[in-house]
Write a structure and sequence with these properties.
Blueprint (H helix, E strand, L loop, with lengths): L21 E3 L2 E5 L2 E7 L2 E2 L4 E5 L6 H8 L10 E3 L2 E2 L12 E4 L10 H6 L6 H10 L3 H5 L18 H15 L3 E5 L7 H14 L4 E5 L11 E6 L2 E6 L1 H7 L2 H11 L1
Helix pairs in contact: 3-5, 7-8
């Protein structure tokens, strides 16, 4: 059953920029009686770093599916720099977004080819991204270094190494919007801190959307969206949400115990 909720009018954005921003009216995306997104209203500015938090099944993945046009909202709109892109051919999305999922798929080819894909090789850019993703020592200790073959199903590397190569690939593709969907889940705390801190430091011109169940690094993000039951129930800076002592603070305190 699809449920219609009247759109909320949006104010015109006075910012004169060709860089992307994301904005919605009231979004409703429902399947039978289950609302996957309910009355979600948000704007993500160009160059902003956003963390998305909340319990499992709260709507985080549904939001990404809407942004990536996996499914379109039944009400409301998604805009990109004032352009309503809900009618854009989904095949164009890859030119706007770089996405790193939790389960990264690598190809049975070299590490270098897995990072560069079909882009032109730029040694300076490649080495910078390898350092950002904390892959330098790992690659240095391999017999063939960047020319080392990734075996089928990535059986010759760890889960954390696979995720870091996936992040390096996304950074090398150099799209304006970077989505990290539980992309650091397999990283140990030291690697996660290095990678996330370096991305935020070196890619301040990009819009970064970071979905995570880990809370230790969320104080580094410009804004945090907290989902529960398909809605955004809290948003703000890390310190503001901790002081509020709502759902986010409870999830954060639980993460410290774990």
């Amino acid at each position: 059953m699809l449920r219609h909720i009247k759109d909320i009018p949006q104010q015109e954005d006075s910012t004169n920029t060709t860089s992307p921003s994301l904005r919605s009216g009231h979004w409703v995306w429902s399947k039978t009686d289950e609302k996957l997104l309910d009355k979600v209203n948000l704007k993500i500015n160009s160059g902003e770093s956003i963390a998305i938090a909340g319990p499992s099944g709260s709507g985080k993945s549904s939001l990404l599916d809407s942004l990536l046009l996996v499914t379109k909202p039944t009400s409301g709109e998604i805009t990109l720099d004032k352009l309503n892109y809900t009618n854009i051919d989904p095949r164009q999305i890859s030119s706007l977004f770089s996405v790193v999922p939790q389960s990264v798929q690598l190809f049975n080819t070299t590490i270098e080819d897995n990072i560069i894909l079909d882009k032109e090789r730029d040694e300076t850019k490649l080495q910078k991204i390898i350092e950002i993703c904390n892959l330098s020592e790992f690659i240095k200790n391999l017999p063939n270094r960047l020319q080392t073959l990734i075996q089928e199903d990535s059986v010759n590397i760890s889960g954390g190494e696979r995720q870091r190569i996936g992040i390096a690939r996304a950074l090398y593709q150099d799209q304006q919007i970077l989505i990290l969907d539980e992309a650091s889940a397999a990283l140990d705390p030291a690697n996660e801190k290095h990678v996330i801190t370096e991305i935020l430091k070196h890619f301040q011109d990009k819009t970064i959307i970071y979905v995570t169940h880990k809370y230790a690094l969320l104080n580094k993000f410009d804004n945090i969206l907290v989902f529960n039951e398909a809605k955004i129930i809290e948003q703000g800076s890390f310190h503001k949400l901790v002081e509020k002592k709502g759902l986010f603070n409870g999830l954060y305190q639980d993460s410290l115990i774990k």
